[in-house]
Specification:
The strands form three sheets. This protein has a five-stranded mixed beta sheet with strand order 6-5-4-7-8. It has twelve helices and 13 strands. By secondary structure, it is an alpha/beta fold. α7 crosses α12, α8 runs antiparallel to α10 and α9 crosses α10. The protein is globular, with a radius of gyration of 25 Å.
């Protein structure tokens, strides 16, 4: 057994350091007195911990506050703040067609970003890794940050990922993402990488900087090409046994739905059918049948196009049925429509909310995400920051 007499002071010092760093991280510049109030520590302990954190590189001391006129008499207060440039995190969104990398400082501010397409869908693992690695380096270059300053990397994938970080590969599509990325990025750059499901990260991003700030019972529906969801219950992400929580293949069996096809895919399909002559339409002026997009449909509806309005009515009914299944099973306070289609989908919120009462006794509030197609990357940054904050005292910062 360890010697308690020597272990206890070390444990207390570690706890005190984590407490002080947390208080500094959640504020701007803080004085020793403010830290004492926030942490309950004595002045001597607070100063000692701050000096230790400065030596480690996590915080910096600001100039004499008397110079700014705040203190006219007595000893000026010492002020400290987080050194947000002491390291950075990467949030990586890996889709089927492209990858996007966001570089953020330790306050979560985006300082660099890059996006690159993959040369194909079913490409070799080495090629997918190469594109992701190169995109990350481009994002770091744009941020002016060296690769050895990266403290944590979170990668969002369009596949179920368990709590153990393993990808569920029971479906061929999901296996496209099982390329050994975690090990590859560590071997190439020395980065600590964690994999996570993209919808789960979207939920973290929405709760951090979207329309769900402060909401603990939340579902985010990524609703572009296929419906997928991230589920938060009492502030905790749900994963399930193998990461399958939130998967929506069950929609195949839901009456009036029949598939997990998303809003963008359905808008294109139904508009293409109209353009092909299966119904009268004025959408022809917007785009040829082969080029019609969900944006064309929503834009035409905004101009009063009758067929486009009919498509939106069908979409709102489909969305109401999908949301009702989530409401019945999970009873969230809020369901957010997220992804690239979210901005256009705002037009669906009011009719969907009206129809929900016919499908569930517990209709949630609805919102469209303001984060657009950046939602997964933002959530990945939040996930990486959470890991840094939890493990700060175990990380070694690289000096400039």
């Amino acid at each position: 057994m360890p010697d308690i007499a020597t272990a206890t002071p070390q444990m207390l010092r570690r706890v005190n350091a984590a407490t002080v760093l947390g208080a500094i991280r959640s504020a701007n510049a803080v004085t020793v007195s403010e830290l004492m109030d926030a942490t309950g520590l004595t002045r001597a302990t607070t100063i000692s911990v701050c000096e230790d954190l400065m030596a480690r590189g996590w915080i910096r001391e600001l100039e004499n506050q008397r110079d700014f006129g705040t203190y006219q008499k007595g000893r000026p207060a010492r002020r400290f703040e987080l050194d947000e440039s002491a390291g950075c995190v990467l949030g990586i969104d890996v889709g089927v067609l492209k990858t996007t990398v966001v570089v953020a400082d330790l306050r979560g501010r985006t300082v660099g970003r890059a996006s690159e397409p993959f040369p194909g869908v079913e490409i070799e693992a080495e090629e997918r890794i190469r594109v992701i690695s190169q995109t990350a380096l481009l994002a770091l270059e744009a941020a002016g940050v060296a690769p050895d300053k990266v403290l944590a990397v979170t990668v969002g994938l369009a596949a179920p990922v368990g709590r153990d970080g393993n990808i569920l590969v029971s479906q061929p599509f999901w296996s496209l993402f099982d390329v050994g990325l975690k090990k590859a990025l560590h071997d190439l750059h020395g980065w600590a990488v964690v994999l996570e499901n993209d919808a789960n990260l979207a939920t973290l991003g929405e709760r951090w900087r979207g329309s769900a700030v402060g909401v603990d019972d939340l579902v985010v529906l990524l609703s572009g090409e296929r419906f997928g969801s991230g589920v938060m219950e009492s502030g905790r992400l749900l994963h399930g046994t193998a990461g399958g929580a939130g998967e929506m293949a069950y929609l195949d069996m839901v009456e009036g739905v029949g598939s997990p096809d998303g809003l963008a895919a359905l808008a294109r399909l139904w508009a293409s059918e109209a353009l092909a002559g299966k119904s009268k339409t004025t959408l022809r002026a917007a785009a040829p049948a082969s080029e019609v997009t969900a944006q064309h449909v929503f834009a035409a509806a905004a101009e009063g196009d009758e067929v486009a309005l009919d498509i939106l009515d069908r979409l709102s009914d489909r969305l109401a049925r999908v949301v009702s299944t989530v409401a019945i099973m999970l009873n969230p306070e809020l369901v957010v429509i997220g992804g690239a289609v979210a901005d256009s989908a705002s037009a669906l919120l009011e009719p969907t909310a009206r129809k929900l009462a016919a499908y569930t006794a517990t209709p949630p509030r609805l919102a469209a995400s303001p984060l657009g197609d950046a939602i997964v990357g933002i959530g990945a940054v939040r996930h990486a920051l959470d890991r840094v904050e939890k493990n700060s005292l175990d990380l070694v910062l690289r000096r400039a």
